[in-house]
Amino acid sequence: MFSVGYNSLMMKKYLSQFGTVVGIITVLIFLIGCAQTIALNKLERLVLDDDEYHSHPKPNAISCIESIDYERHHEEIVNIIFESGNLDLIDQFVEYFPDDFRNYIVRGDRYVKNAMMQQMIGILMKSSVTSSFNTAKESYMKALELNNRDIYALGVLSFLYGEEKEYDKAEELLKRGLGFAPNNPLLYMALGQMYDRKKEYNIAIDYYEKVLGFTEEEVEKEFEHMKQYYHKLMDSYPDSLAKAKEEARKNLKKNYRKIGRETT
Fold first, then answer.
1. Radius of gyration of the chain (CA)
2. For the segment 41-90, what is each residue's pLDDT rounded down to a tens digit?
3. Cα-based torsion angle of the residue sequence 236, 238, 243, 246 in order, rounded to the nearest 10 degrees
4. Domain range holding 60?
5. Whether residues 94 and 174 fall in one domain
6. Other CB atoms within 10 Å distance of the CB of residue 36
7. CA–CA separation, 49 vs 54, rounded Å?
């Protein structure tokens, strides 16, 4: 009887102590979470302050990022930086966090977006647009040095080469991607579009028809990879097999007409 009673008392004591520890841990986790949220809110405010990027060797926004759990909050960090459109901050970001391939992709995407906006507005010098595209290319190439299997970076870089009619470089990148992602329909789509530009319509047709042959099961993982949060321009590309096939059919119809072939 005594032994059972003693054990019961000891158990209550241990449970009480355990409950206290759990409570303390819960409070600490809550406080850490609050601190991270405060830091992210501070980062949002800091990115709006253009002057501070030129007045300090290390911008306050960068110091703020260093105080945050970088990996856990990386998506939120890059979203804030990308949406700010502040190229100075984006340049600083890759300078202080140079070993993360994702940051170079985000930088490339921001420079591409800025260049396209400049083209649409049409009031800035052509050299400014060219400079933005060149910086974007450098960023994607650096990302591929750190991770040579990122299909998205390969695809966007090949697009930029294609825009400059450097078709050999564009094709080399796309075919490199097919070497480790043979079921990615967007690579075949891009190759078809490249041959369209070269007016080699029969070759383009072969690539478009390849897109139509894929099944959902074959391409599921490919689209999962493409839809990463740090692929900021993904909304410019088909994000499903159904959309890729729809675009391929439109291109096929145009090409069939150009070569005098009946549609199937």
1. 26
2. 555 565 545 455 455 557 788 888 888 889 998 999 999 999 988 899 89
3. 70
4. 1-98
5. no
6. 16
7. 10
pLDDT per residue as tens digits for the range 166-209? 999 999 999 999 999 999 999 999 999 999 999 999 999 999 99
Position 89, amino acid: L
Q: How many CB atoms lie within 10 A of CB 59?
A: 22
CA distance 131 to 144: 20
In the block, tokens 């340049």 appear at 91
Burial class of residue 172 (count of CB atoms within 10 Å of its CB; 0-12, 13-18, 19+): middle
Q: Is residue 190 part of a domain?
A: yes
Is the distance from CB of 67 to CB of 39 less than 8 angstroms? yes
Q: DSSP per residue over 71-100, as a string?
A: TTTHHHHHHHHHHHT-HHHHHHHHHHSTT-
